[in-house]
Amino acid sequence: MRILANRMDLGFQKYQAEYEEAVMRVLRSGWYIMGKEMKAFESEFASFNEVSRYLHSMRWNGSGNESIFCAGVASGLDALWIGMKVLGIGPGDDFIVQGNTYIASVMGGTINGARPIFIEPDVNYQIDLNKIEESITSHTKAIMVVHLYGMVCNMDKVVDICKRHHLYLIEDCAQAHGAMWNEQRVGTFGNIGCFSFYPTKNIGAFGDAGAVISHDPDIIHKIEVFRNYGSQEHYKNEVVGANSRLDEMQAALLRVKLKHFNDLTDERRKLAKRYDDELKNPKLIKPVEEQGSYAVYHQYVVRCRDREKLIDFLQSKNIGVNIHYPIPPHLQEAYKYLGHKKGEYPITERYAQEVLSIPIYNGMCEAEQSYVIDALNAF
Questions:
Q1: What is the mean pLDDT of the chain?
Q2: Do residues 34 and 41 make contact, with C-beta atoms less than 8 angstroms apart?
């Protein structure tokens, strides 16, 4: 048996007729950029994130609005950097972010000239909430929480820190569509929630796509202007903007995926539960879903001190795996100018040497998962 680390074709096949209908609807419309499909998806994704009526988060910084507003953009990275640009985070500003995230989270701020202040992760790979306040200075303007692997940290504590220190709260939800803390969707706790719809994501497009959500309609309006060359009226440019538009094809396909979110997420959670219950190898450290959270398991990540030997063993069994991520941002060549040294963030660096994403995907059958479980237990 051969098991891939991830598969997207099975998800397509399950709803193939609906996807093909969506594609043909767009092709026949004769309108391919910023049309009815994009507007419909923005509305539907905003409503999707209003699942909870608690939505207490934004009241601490001036907005009592329980509605969610959405602007589609061209990618998850664009969601981050344009969102931070609109918030006015730039040169001279620091933003706090966990050290073990994907580099795109960091680029969201550094593209705008802001400086990342890295925080070590906790045992569940999320930002260590107990280490944030010691890093806040007069230059700190925002905290970015990354809901890594589809897991969630204690958002009540994050909101409290931002409230007391008058900081922006940015949520990178690229891997956590629909995840919740105390029945409230991630992305709705802060000033902006930034999403990627890269094909591998839980709500994935068939190309690049992204979105920003917010309780503040003014933020979303500014993003709508900025994404279209700084213009809301043809040939009248209010600011120097960008070309970052969610195209009609991807929006139509995302509407199909969004409609089936509950079933797709239930399937992933069942796969994760089986790994939780049946992986018995003491060499493996399994993820733990914090009480109060609802994880969506974009990845199922284990840790192993003998990771390279484990990878070789699994490859001999034709089982594919991924490493998310082998080089932390502070050690990347791109951020050499920040002056960080190896050993500065020992937990982040240890995780980079130990984490392993094992196969989990929609359409994974019982026999395939049994094969993976048996192999991992036999190592």
A1: 96
A2: no
Q: Structure tokens of 213?
A: 């959500």
Examine the domain organization and report whether 250 and 355 are in the same domain. Answer: no
**CA dist list (Å): 361 to 28, 42, 147, 296, 299:** 32, 26, 18, 11, 9
On the 0-12 / 13-18 / 19+ scale of CB atoms within 10 A, 108 is buried
The number of folded domains in the chain is: 2
Q: Which residues lie below 8 Å from residue 215, measured CB to CB, with a gap of 6+?
A: 55, 57, 58, 63, 65, 66, 67, 68, 69, 188
End-to-end distance of the chain based on CA atoms, in angstroms?
17
What is d(CA 30, CA 32) in angstroms, rounded to the nearest whole number?
Answer: 6
Over 70: is that where the pLDDT of 2 sits? yes
Distance CA 243, CA 226 (A): 8
Judgement on whether residues 86 and 136 belong to the same structural domain of the protein: yes
C-alpha distances (whole Å) from 351 to each of 128, 132, 281, 346 are 14, 19, 18, 9
How far is 59 from 233, CA to CA, in rounded Å? Answer: 32
Residue 65, pLDDT score: 67
Domain shared by 245 and 172, yes or no: yes
> Any idea what the CATH number is for the domain that residue 290 is in?
3.90.1150.10
Average pLDDT over residues 158-177: 98
Check whether the bond before 325 is cis (ω within 30° of 0).
yes
Give 132-140 contacts, CB < 8 A, sequence gap 24+.
Answer: 132/96, 132/158, 132/161, 133/161, 133/165, 135/96, 136/96, 136/165, 136/167, 137/94, 139/92, 139/93, 139/94, 139/115, 140/93, 140/94, 140/95, 140/96, 140/165, 140/167
Greater pLDDT, 247 or 51: 247
Which secondary-structure segment (H or E) carries 236?
strand 236-237
Structure tokens at 142: 């925002």
Among 259, 279, 314, give the residue marking a domain's end: 259
What average pLDDT score do residues 340-362 get? 98
